[in-house]
């Protein structure tokens, strides 16, 4: 990657190499031109945001290239059928859902919007996880909430194994692996690490996949946990207790971010039904938002893809009804 200045204008040249074993091939080359360095519209951040899109695409290509086996090949070939086009506005609230959205938004308000934006300190050249971080947790847990916020800010994907109270599947598996029912429980398959305690997990994520400096909202001690817990009260325990369900053969895939009340409502159902899912975090300023716009012509979350039925859905009420009808018992 080369940074140079030509005629008073700054340009960024680069080539992304996709490596496989001892071979490498050119995955993409690019030139990003910015305005005059002395001009009012030029910012280093704007140039890096353009570069971030290329980096995200390159990381996706590299991860795909490293996958093997029939299952990954099938996933690459799979095409999803969109059940219904998304609404005209990404912030439109369905009729009768106003109270649910307002109560779900209380936690984001009390947490001052933590998890709504990708960190502007996130270096493009830091190590990025090739496989999703695995989390055993549940929606109604304030300690788990803090870790989910951290993942949104760091713009990393998570494979969730929901552990609602009395859940027969993932809670028992977590207990088998670490000897206790304590959440969140994190596994990083990229480093072979397992970890309990939300503060320890957050510190690990920032030192491994961030700039090493944990944001202030996670360093306020009990106050951080209390603000996360207070936001749970309006939801009256939703996302905490198990409801009988049928497990899918493959994990579902969900696009969203932690500070969105619409995403929280869908996460509650996923947790109560103990449905494993890969969560693609797309907080504001995430370069991965563009991929959804390119695919469907809009960005809107939550967005769900179910590899078990090849269906794709937008809109919280539609997604939740689909989950209840398909996996509720």
Automatic annotation (TrEMBL):
GO terms for cellular component: chloroplast. InterPro entries: Glutathione_S-Trfase (IPR040079), Glutathione_S-Trfase_N (IPR004045), Thioredoxin-like_sf (IPR036249). Residues 131-213, 250-329 form the GST N-terminal domain. Residues 78-87 have a biased composition (Basic residues). Signal peptide: none annotated. Residues 64-74 have a biased composition (Polar residues). Pfam families: GST_N_3. Residues 64-87 are annotated as: Disordered. This is GST N-terminal domain-containing protein. It comes from Apatococcus fuscideae.
């Amino acid at each position: 990657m080369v940074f140079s200045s030509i005629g008073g204008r700054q340009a960024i040249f680069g080539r992304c190499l996709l490596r496989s074993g001892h071979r490498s091939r050119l995955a993409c080359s690019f030139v990003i031109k910015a305005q005059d360095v002395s001009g009012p519209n030029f910012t280093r951040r704007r140039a890096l945001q353009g570069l971030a899109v290329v980096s995200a695409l390159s990381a996706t290509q590299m991860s795909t290239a490293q996958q093997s086996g029939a299952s990954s090949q099938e996933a690459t070939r799979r095409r999803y059928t969109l059940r219904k086009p998304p609404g005209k506005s990404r912030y439109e609230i369905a009729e009768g859902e106003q109270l649910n959205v307002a109560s779900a938004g209380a936690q984001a308000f009390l947490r001052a919007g933590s998890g709504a934006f990708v960190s502007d300190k996130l270096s493009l050249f830091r190590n990025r996880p090739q496989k999703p971080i695995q989390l055993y947790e549940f929606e109604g847990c304030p300690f788990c909430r803090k870790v989910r916020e951290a993942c949104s800010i760091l713009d990393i994907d998570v494979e969730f194994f929901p552990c609602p109270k009395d859940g027969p599947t993932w809670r028992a598996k977590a207990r088998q692996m670490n000897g206790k029912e304590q959440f969140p429980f994190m596994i990083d398959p990229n480093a072979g690490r397992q970890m309990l305690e939300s503060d320890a997990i957050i510190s690990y994520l920032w030192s491994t996949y961030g700039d090493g400096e944990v944001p202030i909202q996670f360093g306020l001690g009990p106050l951080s946990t209390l603000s996360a817990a207070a936001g749970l009260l309006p939801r009256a325990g939703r996302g905490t207790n198990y409801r009988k369900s049928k497990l899918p053969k493959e994990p579902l895939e969900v696009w969203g971010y932690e500070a969105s009340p619409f995403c929280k409502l869908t996460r509650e159902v996923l947790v109560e039904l103990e449905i494993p899912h890969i969560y693609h975090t797309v907080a504001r300023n995430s370069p991965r938002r563009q991929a959804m716009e390119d695919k469907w012509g809009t960005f809107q979350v939550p967005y769900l893809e179910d590899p078990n039925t090849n269906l794709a859905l937008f809109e919280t009420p539609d997604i939740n009804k689909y989950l209840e009808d398909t996996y509720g018992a």
